[in-house]
Amino acid sequence: MVGAFLVGYQRLRLGPINLTLSDAAFVLAFAICLARGQIAREPFGGMTAAWILALVLMLTGLMIGTVVHGNMFRWAVISLQYLFGYLFLPLMLMRVPLAFAHRLIAMFLIGMTVMEVIGIAVSLTLDPQQATALLASDFLEGNGRLSTFASEPNWNGQLIAFTGPFALYALVKRLMAPWVFVIVLAVLLGGLLLSASFTGFAAFSIGMVVALAFLGVRAILGAGLAISVIAAIFLASGAPLPTVFQDRVGGALVDGSLEEAGTYKGRVKLLEQAWDKSGDTIIVGLGVEGFRATHEINQPVHNLFMLMLVDGGLMALLGFTLLVALLFIMPLRYFRRFRVEAGTAVAVACVFTIYTQSMPHMFARLNIVPVLFGLMLIFAGSRQLYPKGVVLTPSAPGRTPNRRMDSRVRR
User: Fold this and answer.
1) Residue 24, in any domain of the structure
2) Most buried residue among 52, 241, 307, 408 by CB atoms closer than 10 A?
3) What is the predicted pLDDT for the residue at 192?
4) In 3D, which of 355, 374, 377 has the Cα closest to residue 364?
5) How many CB atoms lie within 10 A of CB 179?
6) Residues whose CB falls within 8 Å of the CB of residue 103, separated by 6 or more in sequence, listed in order
7) pLDDT tens-digit readout, 194-234
8) DSSP secondary structure of 182-241
């Protein structure tokens, strides 16, 4: 529960390493679940083998390149980060009952709302220097962009984009009253505007549209009403859009040109340079952080697919591509019986995929835990509906999904 509340609080680290209070809470919970025998042997059911294969391909490709070109210690650190987020957490999260899964989603929503309320209050009342003295150096950037406890404005935008579909899910499942949904959505939109992240704005919009397409009329009406109320209040107040949002995102939206969005030009240049190098890294990549080390400005390429190809070769790229594909395949397999849960998982997977186009490695738990929460809802719902081990198997369109008895009950 504490881990879910603190997922977005990347700034609350235990020392200089990438271990947050949320991570520590998850580690403690994992140890308790392991002692009680409450760990899923096959967290993703029949897709577990494919998930593990994808991780093995990705990490092995990075390892081969690192052995030839780089520092194996750095590969070990990166691998542990990925294994913790992409393997050990699923072993625990995919085993929880539906009622507890709902509580985790509620805690995540509360944690994000509290974080954004604090961020908005600080942004409206303090300047960056005062925010630095009171909280942290990167809570509010010098140009006014809001990072909050996510420690980076783009991460803040990503977290808000992840949160939107879960708020819709909570509304549809009556975990959240409509008036609470309006407040939560208003807070999220306020935080999104102040983060001034074009990728965050695009990901939030796409994620919400995808979720609404799956969730049905109640969600569409609820979201439409909430947006109308928020827009009416904002217009009546006469408040302008945040200047930093107008400068970084507004121009791109008005002109329809991505070149006006944030650091787009610099990222495209990095991508072009990585593509030029990729011809020599098909078999053996440059190793973990190999591209950064060979680049004149010491920056990684901000595209995870390209980064995998350059640093890990074709093997790592295939592994990561399979991993992303599974994020869509798994929920779609359960769409007929768990439409709301599947829609939420697909929407969150869309947000994750969008951010793979603008970020280097995504092993921080704030990058993956919301995605796992989406999948968790599906597997928790499946166990509640079929508690004696009856699971769904895909069926042809137009036919009733088949049922089969599966002796591997402990997923």
Assistant:
1) yes
2) 307
3) 94
4) 355
5) 10
6) 1
7) 998 889 999 999 999 999 988 777 778 777 888 888 878 87
8) HHHHHHHHHHHHHHT-HHHHHHHHHHHHHHHHHH-HHHHHHHHHHHHHHHHHHHHHTPPP
Tell me what pLDDT residue 398 has. Answer: 44
* Tens digit of each residue's pLDDT (9 = 90 or more) over 59-103: 999 999 999 887 788 899 999 999 999 999 999 999 899 999 999
Angle at 41 between CA 37 and CA 43, to 5 degrees: 115
Residue by residue, DSSP assigns 275-294 as: HHHHTT-SSS---TTHHHHH
What length does the chain have? 411
Instruction: Kindly calculate the radius of gyration of the chain based on its CA atoms and give it in whole angstroms.
Output: 21
For residue 287, is it within any domain? no
Of 78, 113, 169, nearest in space to 373 by CA: 169
Cα separation values, 350 from 128, 170, 279, 280, Å: 33, 19, 29, 31
A 10 A CB-CB count for 74 gives 16
Structural domain range at position 271: 2-45+94-281+296-304+325-405
Strand stretches in 229-311, DSSP E:
none
13: β partners: 20
Single-letter amino acid, residue 61: G
Residue 403's pLDDT is: 46
**Whole-angstrom distance, CA of residue 293 vs CA of residue 310:** 12
**Residue-wise DSSP of 312-345:** HHHHHHHHHHHHHHHHHHHHHHTTTT-HHHHHHH
Tell me, what's the pLDDT at 241?
Answer: 73
Q: Compute the distance between CA of residue 267 and CA of residue 99 in angstroms, rounded to an integer.
A: 43
Residue 185 to residues 68, 111, 114, 165, 227, Cα–Cα distance (Å): 49, 14, 12, 10, 8
pLDDT recorded at residue 242? 75
- For residues 191 and 153, the answer to whether their CB atoms sit within 8 Å is no
Residues of the chain with pLDDT under 70: 238-240, 250-266, 295-298, 382-411
How many Å apart are CA 304 and CA 316, to the nearest integer? 11
For residues 300 and 348, is the Cβ–Cβ distance under 8 A? no
Residue 390: per-residue pLDDT: 40
Q: Tell me what pLDDT residue 384 has.
A: 59
288 located within any domain: no
Asked whether residue 233 is assigned to any structural domain, the reply reads: yes
